[in-house]
Amino acid sequence: MKTLLSLLFLLAPLFSNEQFELGQKIYEDTCTSCHGKSGNADVDVVFVVKPRSLKASILTEEQSYKIIKDGAHYWGASADIMPAFGTVYEDKALHAVAYYIKKRFNPNIEEKIDHYYNESETISVEKRSKMMQRGKKIYKRNCSWCHGVDAKGDGDATRNPEKSIYPYNLRKTLLNNKQMFLYAKYGGKFWGTDKDDMPAWKVKYNDFTLKSVIFYIEQTFQKDTQG
Amino acid sequence: MNKTLKTLLLTLTLVTSVTAQNHIIDQKGKTFIPHAVSVSPGDTITFRNSDPFAHNAYTDDEDNEFDIGMQSTGTEKVITIKAGKDFSVECAIHPNMLLEVAVK
Question: Tag placement on chain B: N or C end, fewer CB within 10 Å?
């Protein structure tokens, strides 16, 4: 058994390399027309919603795999721009693309998330009892304009005659609470979106308030998809 | 009510309506323009949205509390100032937007 494990350990880089090469081939054949060779969507195409920068993205490898497989709309994007490739490529190929994207563009994303999250305020036990009330107030005051009172991404601001914003359905998002907090705090542009429709709320609210909003969302809105 | 009193009230109403000013605040580039305004009780503020996306304007000030709701592109909404202290107006959608209102 020990010998077998040692052998697998020695062969692991070869499998990884094979996976990287497969992912790279599919990425270059299929993804570069929108995301660009550099991953920054620096392509000569006009989009309703420009693809996010894969270098600045907050998504983990597993989350990227799910979006590549099912499309972004399935996971809460209101614009149906990123298609589902689950019927185009077999599962091994989809995993290879997600692996390539992580290795090539964003190899330290988990550490990056932890770094930024660990810089934020730790909520004391005394304050925790106030989170629901605070989160509810701020969600209704600010977030519901775009994300909607039911968090389905259909708030009043989406009904502006000039359709220019595409908020996420928070019942479907793949982001975990840590990622949602960082998205709310630093805004979408910081994490790779082209526009700053999702603003950086740190200019207005402290970590306690933003964590309270995420807590309220988690406790109030049932997930529509299985992450 | 005697005739003199009626005349006095009418005069006061006319004076107030003549002296009350309308202040136009443009919402453009996710900014209130101008970002500060000096008003008197009875004045009005017209919020105009010149951006290609929705805006809002609200204050929780206890004397002049208001919330104009969702404001679509190209529309105007008017609020009337009551007596009170200075206050700030924010947009609930865009956290960088701030209007300082000084009440004379």
Answer: N
Q: Please name the helix (run of DSSP H) or strand (run of DSSP E) that holds residue B78, with its range, or none.
A: strand B76-80
Q: Which residue of B has its CA nearest to A204?
A: B95
What count of Cα atoms within 13 Å lies in the side-chain half-sphere of residue A90? 2
Which chain B residue lies closest to A140 (C-alpha atoms)? B92
Could you tell me which CATH number the domain at A113-220 has?
A: 1.10.760.10
Q: Which fold has domain A2-107?
A: Cytochrome Bc1 Complex; Chain D, domain 2 (1.10.760)
Would you call A199 and B96 a contact, using CB atoms and an 8 Å cutoff? Answer: yes
Contact call for residues A60 and A98 (beta carbons, < 8 A): no
The answer to whether B102 contacts chain A (CB < 8 Å) is no
Q: What is the pLDDT of residues A115-166, one digit of tens each?
A: 999 999 999 999 999 999 999 999 999 999 999 999 999 999 999 998 889 9
Q: Which residue of B has its CA nearest to A200?
A: B95
Contact flag B70-A201 (C-beta cutoff 8 Å):
no
Query: Whole-prediction pTM value?
Result: 0.87
In tens, the pLDDT along A180-216 reads 999 999 999 999 998 889 999 999 999 999 999 999 9
Number of domains in chain B: 1
